[in-house]
Recover the amino acids of this structure.
């Protein structure tokens, strides 16, 4: 592992920070970042009951019930504070099915052969500047392994939280789903307010073998900075899924509402014949937030299919860009893609951009792209007001309506949370 | 209603209003009592639609003078949603299309906002659906409308019927119908007018804003007011509407004749900047259509 990290570090030293995204920020001082930070309760925890109650309280406040509620709703949770995993629930129940769900540091101890086989196989160490940095310094993250033929009996989820100021979070998530198996995984992200910017440079790798099915959902609410754009998280994340086997499927769903800057492109590399990639995204920016997000669908195998539905909502003085690549390789006979990118503007100082890249090297491929821009206007709000619906309710109804196609793709337990989060984020955006 | 003063629902005094700095309403006076139906007629640009929007509190219209007393209270400082919750309902001339928000959900949120305002418990989705089913009959609407996005892809007639459905649910004290008849064929007009008639009670009042006498054949007004250049210039009973229509038609025709004779000597068009079209074509078309 040390060798892996060193290789990444040396690569990183030679690389340049990318400048192509449609975002602006002050230079990051990489010497000034704390690369490892842990909550004070350091002893190994046997169960959730032993977790420091104040930590649990923090989670409760964030609307992330680690304990009873999630137990009732049958969701296994791995909670990561700063750089370490503090608790993973439901481990025994999952183990009975052969499913491994633990922090990646534990996985390195207990299942080194699995980790070493797959880590870096989807996102190589030198893939990009931030992925290389992550590969060099990553501290913790989640590890999921679903053995052949097993349908993971419950939703798995991780909650990430950056707690200390000036701390960078560099988590690494690796999910491996064997032949004919399936899993649905959700991550939630939060951070308290600090004046300085914090860097979050994560890497997520998914591997789906023959007939495997992975559904990966994200609800991201990192601290976005204040109204003037001071503070907030730089969310520079590399997420990629490899549909390695035939008929495999990887589906990304993301609700991005936080972070000062979001820079991420959850992608699918469709190697296996008939494999399917999906990307459903809601990106909401407000105040001075900036988002440059989208996906890459790389069609390599025959009859591979991909769907992209992106909903961008910009309020305040924020900038929201969709950037997506659809690439059809020369051997991807019969490949198909459908992309739909809709933008919604709230107020008259926000910006929305769409940057679609389409590269087709096979004549039999079929690629469709649709885009639209809408604006929440005074007339719509007046209509709602005239029926007694307050402006805030009107905006959240309009936004929820706009995002419906994507919200429907989230696991049921989280769809209403995400809906509430969107309304919360839009409070006071109009008028 | 025991006291006479409590019968007055709306009292408008010397109301003046601007749009983009241009004065549109130049001193409107109007009294509406419970149980009454008032029709406001007038040409395009006379200010009648502006009047309806000012009553509802549209933010684009700036009130520069006068007052609007509704149920004994000056409402000029009130927000549009507060006015709505206190019982003022505007049926829009052009209802807004809202993709993604189902008609049923919109109706339920609006209905429950009114319930909350009245201190009543909100209806859950099941009870609400029962209630809506009942109200659909008022405008002879198919239940499938409820599942569709609010007004999205609705025909002109469907949109107007949907407005009346909302009115049936919200049971306003003062309903203002802004050109609800425009763009309706005769069947749709009959349904819409029938809905409005069913919703009238001795306790509420209706203001019909319309271009044509046609609507008044179906909804009988107690008073007709003629608006011209931002003022109500004449008021009278329902016979005024008919007289008005005949008078307007006569003046158009005589004017057209005058223009024709002009033209036979030497056409001086364009003389008036108010008309984009040659007046003979413009009025000739209207007369041919009637």
């Amino acid at each position: 592992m040390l060798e892996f990290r060193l290789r990444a570090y040396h690569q990183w030293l030679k690389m340049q920070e990318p400048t192509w995204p449609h975002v602006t920020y002050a230079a990051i001082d990489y010497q000034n970042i704390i690369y490892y930070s842990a909550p004070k309760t350091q002893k190994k925890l046997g169960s959730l009951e032993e977790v420091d109650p104040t930590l649990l309280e923090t989670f409760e406040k964030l609307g992330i019930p680690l304990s009873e509620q999630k137990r009732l709703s049958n969701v296994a949770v791995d909670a990561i504070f700063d750089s370490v995993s503090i608790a993973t629930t439901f481990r025994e129940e999952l183990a009975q099915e052969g499913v491994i769900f633990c922090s990646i540091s534990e996985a390195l101890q207990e299942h080194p052969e699995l980790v070493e086989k797959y880590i870096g196989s989807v996102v190589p160490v030198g893939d990009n500047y931030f992925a290389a940095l992550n590969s060099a310094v990553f501290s913790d993250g989640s590890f999921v392994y679903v053995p052949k033929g097993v349908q993971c009996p419950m939703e798995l989820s991780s909650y990430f939280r950056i707690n200390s100021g000036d701390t960078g979070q560099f988590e690494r998530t690796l999910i491996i789903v064997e032949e004919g198996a399936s899993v649905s995984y959700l991550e939630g992200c939060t951070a308290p307010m600090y004046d300085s910017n914090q860097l979050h440079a994560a890497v997520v790798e998914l591997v789906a073998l023959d007939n495997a099915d992975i559904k990966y959902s994200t609800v991201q609410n990192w601290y976005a900075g204040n109204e003037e754009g001071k503070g907030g998280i730089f969310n520079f994340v590399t997420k990629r899924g490899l549909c390695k086997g035939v008929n495999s499927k990887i589906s990304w769903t993301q609700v991005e509402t936080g972070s000062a800057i979001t820079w991420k492109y959850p992608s699918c590399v469709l190697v296996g014949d008939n494999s399917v990639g999906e990307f459903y995204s809601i990106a909401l920016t407000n105040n001075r937030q900036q988002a440059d997000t989208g996906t890459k669908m790389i069609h390599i195998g025959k009859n591979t299919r991909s769907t992209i539905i992106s909903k961008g909502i910009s309020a305040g003085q924020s900038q929201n860009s969709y950037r997506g690549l659809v690439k059809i390789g020369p051997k991807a006979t019969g490949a198909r893609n459908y992309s739909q990118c809709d933008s919604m503007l709230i107020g008259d100082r926000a910006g929305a951009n769409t940057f679609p890249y389409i590269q087709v090297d096979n004549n039999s491929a079929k690629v469709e792209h649709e885009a639209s821009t809408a604006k929440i206007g005074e007339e719509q709000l007046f209509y709602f007001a005239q029926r007694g619906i307050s402006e805030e309710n009107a905006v959240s109804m309009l936004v929820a309506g706009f995002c419906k196609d994507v919200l429907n793709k989230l696991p049921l337990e989280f769809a209403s949370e995400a809906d509430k989060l969107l309304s919360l984020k839009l409070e006071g955006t109009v008028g | 209603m025991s006291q006479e003063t409590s019968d007055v629902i709306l009292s408008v005094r010397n109301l003046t209003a601007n749009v983009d700095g241009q004065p549109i309403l130049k001193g409107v006076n109007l009294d509406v009592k419970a149980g009454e139906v008032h029709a406001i007629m007038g040409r395009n640009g006379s200010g009648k639609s502006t009047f309806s929007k000012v009553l509802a509190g549209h933010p684009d219209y700036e009130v520069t003078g006068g007052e609007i007393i509704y149920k004994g209270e000056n409402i000029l400082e009130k927000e549009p949603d507060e006015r709505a919750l206190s019982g003022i309902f505007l049926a829009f001339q052009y209802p807004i299309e809202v993709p993604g928000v189902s008609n049923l959900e919109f109706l339920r949120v609006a209905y429950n906002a009114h319930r909350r305002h009245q201190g009543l418990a909100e209806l859950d989705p099941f009870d609400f659906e029962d209630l809506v089913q009942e109200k659909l009959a008022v405008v002879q609407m198919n239940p499938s409308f409820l599942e569709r996005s609010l007004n999205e892809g609705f025909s002109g007639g469907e949109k107007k019927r949907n407005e009346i459905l909302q009115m049936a649910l919200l049971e306003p004290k003062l309903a203002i119908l802004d050109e609800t008849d425009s763009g309706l064929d005769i069947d749709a007009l009959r349904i819409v007018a029938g809905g409005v008639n069913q919703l009238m009670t001795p306790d509420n009042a209706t203001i019909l804003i319309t271009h044509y006498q046609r609507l008044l054949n179906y909804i009988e007004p107690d008073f007709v007011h003629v608006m011209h250049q931002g003022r109500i210039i004449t008021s009278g009973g329902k016979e005024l509407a008919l007289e008005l229509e005949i008078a307007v038609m006569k003046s158009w025709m005589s004017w057209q004749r005058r223009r024709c004779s002009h033209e036979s000597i030497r056409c001086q068009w364009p003389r008036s900047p108010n008309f984009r079209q040659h007046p003979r074509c413009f009025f000739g078309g209207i007369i041919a259509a009637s």
Residues 2-378 of chain A form one domain. The longest helix of chain A spans residues 391-407. Chain A has one domain: 2-378.
